[in-house]
Hints:
- By secondary structure, this protein is mainly beta.
- Helix content is 10%, strand content 31%.
- It contains 4 helices and 26 strands.
- It has helices spanning 2-17, 350-357, 400-417, 437-440; strands at 38-44, 48-50, 55-64, 69-72, 77-80, 90-93, 98-102, 109-113, 139-142, 154-155, 167-168, 178-186, 201-204, 211-218, 225-228, 233-240, 247-250, 256-263, 272-275, 285-293, 304-307, 312-320, 328-330, 360-368, 383-385, 419-421.
- The strands form 2 sheets. The chain has a 24-stranded parallel beta sheet that branches.
- The longest helix has 18 residues, at 400-417.
- The radius of gyration is 22 Å and the shape is globular.
Amino acid sequence: xxxxFSIFAIVGLMLSLASCGDDDDTPIVxxxxxxxxxxxxxxxxxxxTWSSDKIYELAGxxxxxxxxxxxxxxxxxxxxxxxxxxxSSALVIARGAKIDAQGTGAAPIIFTSVLDDxxxxxxxxxxxxxxxxxxxxxxxxxxxxxxxxxxxxxxxxGIPPSVTEGLYGGTxxxxxxxxxxxxxxxxxxxxxxxxxxxNGLTLGGVGSKTEIEFVEVVANKDDGIELFGxxxxxxNALVWAQGDDAYDIDQAYKGTIDNFIYIAGVxxxxxxxxxxxxxxxxGSFTMKNGSLKGIAGAEKGxxxxxxxGATGTVxxxxxxxxxxxxxxxxxxxxxxxPDDDDKKLSDNPKTSDKFxxxxxxxxxxxxxxKDADGGDITIDDIFTDKxxxxxSTPGDSRDADAAVLQATENKATFNADNSVVSTxxxxxxxxxxxxxxxxxxxxxxxx
Length: 447
């Protein structure tokens, strides 16, 4: 009787999820419950292997704890129940734990929703597409590498403070959280509460000995891939149709992201959102060899946003298909609304200063000379240094003329180092992404 009740409970949950959690009003055709799924929840405290001959089902948070290794075989499918808040399903690799997820191009490891009708041996189901977002949580890998925050280690967003396995950060730059290779993460980002969703792949304080390559995030409600500090390198990454930012960098991340693709969806915000350090720790990231595609009719859809004294380099990358007016911004730190006299700008324009000093670099970037609607674009249209935009706001003590002069000089530097082109000569090597769900759906045709 207990088994029968649990099956009915799962069916009820799935039916309730069929009408919520995504941005497409078309009802989801709910696949039947598979009693053969291996249901996982709670803590994994000893080494464990998930095999490709079974489908694994996340029922709430699954946390691999310090000292344990979770091995996931190539071709394994992991489905997750949704839930919200503390009941959200997610896989968490805690500090001191390891993930050994080594998929292949022919047999990637797939994380998706229980609503996905994908079956064993398949690379994609038939009832969900890139518009179906927020159906479960996501994957979080946490390490002991340095971060910039108010203290050496802090709690990752999305995990309650009472769960100490949610801490990340430390002093070990070459920390090793394992291998994460040929992995596709789909339809995640469920709401945790108060404008707080889980990213598709969260990397918190992950160290340089960790191997992360050939990773795809599709249809995540929040960011695609977000890095909170750490030193890990990420190679051959793709984000498609996320609800917020594709690649988000925080807390003095100082690794390299090499050969990356972004494909906007109708709800996507920035291709890149780059924040500076929050505490005393400093770090300088590198992003290179990227191809970033916008979308016509996007309500948001900026190319990139640099904030809070960001330091690092973005280079050899191509931006195209953006909406009319899409730009690269240096935000005016501390400003919320330049037109609101009650909200004053900070007296420290950190991001503008970092660009001027060369600590933040953008070089050899190419932008298509046409926007998504066929309008002409010039290099002068691309760059905005927002420090100057509200420099005379009441209560702001900065010199308005100096702000305008610095913004003008920064624009001249950007325009000299980057260009608008009709044919790209830089960008990602899309041959590295033939294994992805995005490629199978024709989303890489323009790359």
